[in-house]
Write a structure and sequence with these properties.
globular, mainly alpha, about 45% helix, two-stranded antiparallel ribbon, 16 helices, three-stranded antiparallel beta sheet
């Protein structure tokens, strides 16, 4: 595998490699000519602040990503993408899908049996050793549970089998067992796929604009270039906190989703907004995330959750709540971690701070190279290309069914089953060219390092300086940490200047 360039990360000189390679059986990396290169002037994240904050200007209206790479708007079509994919990649097998479900369920059952039978005081007398083994149990079960979640996700996209009835039946059982409202999530997730990267229609991963971020931290937008950097310990703390509660916040209060619910076509969003008590969630049939025709499916999703919660209550009542916590709820938190969303808000030092953290789904849509689009500059192909493939080694490819490694392809054609996605990914790379993005260097460790890199570099989005016309609607991440391209220096609002002059 040939690597394009390496950047050493903040303080710890963390590798952030947007790597490329020639095609291999398991590789999804692009060729060296196809992957956007990082800025040659930025050798390490920790040194950027001393290099005049990498004050790269967008002369002549050039678009620059956070690393300083010039960005060109994609001009290929969805038809070109679909035509490049071999026909057999679209074939779905219900038998093969059920085989994977059986494998994951058997793995969950076997792991429970082994630990419940053998990790006992009679067999392991040391309490610390038993605690360590049961901690390992929660981690392993979290991986198997995430794998089952991914298969239900396949069902939601109808890539599990040719039968819609089989897909929705398996998806409902599997997601309900994991406390996911299957149909409710399926509907909102489908809307995310239809509007990926669209700042006013996307359902998740909608980043804060500069004005929104400034408001969160109690400043004006023009003051962000003067703020001190966020301390690494704050970044680390917020990452850990969000990984525990990101998914529940998303389904309970629609965090990270758009907040333009007044525009809902049936008028269901009037007076509703994201947040607890705002009327926007995945459980209420009247939520503006849904149309009236979706009401019965939302209630069926709620029924699945009620059955699971009742079952868990019976288990806890009969076998003890501490046991249930170890058997189910801690592994459930691990599933939250891997599928975690982002954007939790807390009070820190009496100021509201936007806390951005990452996991599988966050890292699929958040990277210093990725754009976001205002309505006038967006189309489906551009939005689908605003995603990135990563590599998580054996865990990602075997236990998590490749959801990390082939996400770009998934956004172009979500009905291709995961076991055909590698081949289809290779087929679309020549069409996408430089717009195919992957970060595969370092395997699982590289994936985890990307969490930190994205958390430090991707704080808000703003237009590129000097951009005109259609380019004004293409926004890239910037940050207050002195990393990558510096934010634009803005003048204070006229009313603020007037107030100062009056005083």
């Amino acid at each position: 595998m040939s690597t394009v360039t390496a950047r050493k990360g903040f303080a710890q000189q963390t590798d952030v490699l947007h790597s490329t390679s020639s095609s291999t059986t398991n590789s999804i990396a692009a060729s060296p000519e196809d992957t956007p290169r990082q800025s040659p002037s930025s050798t390490s994240l920790s040194s950027l602040a001393s290099e005049n904050d990498l004050d790269l200007k967008t002369a002549n209206g050039k678009l620059l990503d956070t690393y300083g790479n010039e960005f060109h708007l994609p001009d290929f079509t969805i038809k070109q993408i679909r035509d490049a994919i071999p026909a057999h990649c679209f074939n779905r097998s219900g038998a093969k899908g059920l085989g994977y479900v059986a494998r994951d369920l058997a793995s969950l059952a076997a792991t429970f049996y082994l630990f419940h039978t053998y990790v006992t005081p009679e067999n392991v007398s040391s309490t610390p050793a038993r605690a360590a083994l049961w901690a390992l149990y929660t981690f392993v079960q979290g991986l198997f549970g995430t794998g089952l979640w991914v298969l239900a996700h396949e069902c939601g996209h109808q890539s599990f089998s040719p039968s819609k009835t089989l897909n929705d039946t398996v998806g409902w059982f599997c997601h309900s067992a994991l406390l996911v409202p299957y149909f409710s999530w399926k509907i909102s997730h489908g809307k995310h796929h239809k509007a990926t990267g669209h700042l006013e229609r996307d359902m998740v991963f909608v980043p804060k604009t500069r004005d929104q971020y400034a408001s969160r931290v109690g400043h004006f937008a023009h003051e962000l270039t003067e703020l001190m950097e966020e301390t690494p310990i704050v970044t680390a703390g917020t990452m850990i906190g969000q990984q525990l509660v990101g998914w529940p916040l998303y389904i309970l209060a629609n965090v990270t989703g758009h907040n333009y619910h007044e525009r809902q076509s049936e008028g269901r969003g009037k007076g509703k907004k994201n947040g607890f008590g705002g009327g926007v969630n995945h459980f209420d049939p009247s939520s503006p995330l849904y149309e009236a025709k979706d009401g019965k499916l939302v209630l069926l999703s709620d029924l699945g959750l009620a059955i699971t919660l009742a079952t868990l209550f019976l288990i806890g009542s009969n076998f003890g709540w501490a046991n249930l916590a170890v058997w189910y709820f801690v592994p459930y938190l691990w599933v939250n971690h891997w599928l975690g969303k982002r954007c939790l808000q807390r009070q820190l030092a009496n100021r509201r701070t936007n806390l951005v953290v990452v996991a599988i789904t966050f890292l699929q849509h958040t990277d210093p190279t990725l754009p976001h689009y205002e309505p006038q500059s967006w189309n489906f192909a551009r939005g689908a290309a605003a995603t990135i493939d990563r590599e998580f080694g054996f865990i990602g490819r075997q236990l998590l069914h490749g959801i990390i490694e082939t996400h770009v392809l998934h956004h172009f054609v979500s009905t291709i089953p995961f076991y055909n996605a590698d081949e289809a990914t290779e087929a679309i790379k020549p069409i996408m060219g430089q717009h195919y993005r992957s970060h595969v260097e370092g395997g699982s460790i590289g994936f985890l390092k990307s969490m930190w890199n994205s958390a430090r570099m991707c704080q808000w989005i703003e237009p590129c300086e000097g951009a005109e016309g259609e380019k004004k609607g293409v926004l890239f991440f910037r940050n207050r940490n002195g990393l990558g391209v510096a934010p634009q220096k803005l003048s204070p609002p006229a009313e603020l200047q007037a107030a100062k002059s009056d005083s």
